[in-house]
Amino acid sequence: MAVFNLNINGKQHEVDVDPSTPMLWVLRDHLDLVGTKFGCGIAQCGACTILVNGVATRSCITFVDSVGDKEITTIEGLSENGDHALQKAWIEEDVPQCGYCQSGQIMNAAGLLNANPSPSDEEIEMAMHGNICRCGTYTRIKKAIKTAANS
Amino acid sequence: MTTVKTKLDRRSFIRSSALAGGGLLLTFSWLAPACTTDSPKQLTMPDEWYELNGFLKIGNNGAVTIMSPNPEIGQNVKTSMPMIVADELDVDWKFVMVEQAPLNTDIFTRQLAGGSQSIRQGWNGLRMAGATGRRMLREAAAHEWKVPVDEITTEAGVLYHKNSGKEAGYGEMASAAAELTVPEEVELKDIKDFTIIGTSRKNVDGQKIVTGKPLFGLDYKAEGMLIAMIEHPPAFGMKLKSFDATEAKAMPGIIDVFSIKTYNDDYQMQWSDVTAFTELVAVVGKSTWEVMNAKLMLNVEWEPIAEDNAQGVPAGFESTADHYKKMEEAAAKAGREQRRDGNPEEAFKNAAKVIERTYTAPFQAHSPMEPMNFFADVKDDFALLAGPTQTPEFMEKTVAARLGLPLEKVDVQMTRMGGGFGRRLYGHFMVEAAVISQQVKAPVKLIYSREDDMSYGIYRPAYHALYRAALDADNNLIGFHVRMGGIPESPLHANRFPAGSVDNYLAESFTVESNISTGAFRAPGSNFNAVAEQSFLDEVAEAAGKDPIQFRLDLLKRAQENPVGSNNDYDAARYAGVLEQVREKSGWDTNSEGKNRGVAAYFCHNSYVANVVDIANKDGKQVIEKVYASVDCGIVVNPDAAVNMTEGSIVDGIGHAMYSELTFSEGQPEQNNFDMYRLIRHAEAPKEIEVHFVENNIDPTGLGEPPYPPVMGALANALYKANGERYYHQPFVKNSIG
Question: What strand order describes the sheet that includes B621-632?
Answer without folding.
Answer: B596-604, B607-618, B621-632, B688-693
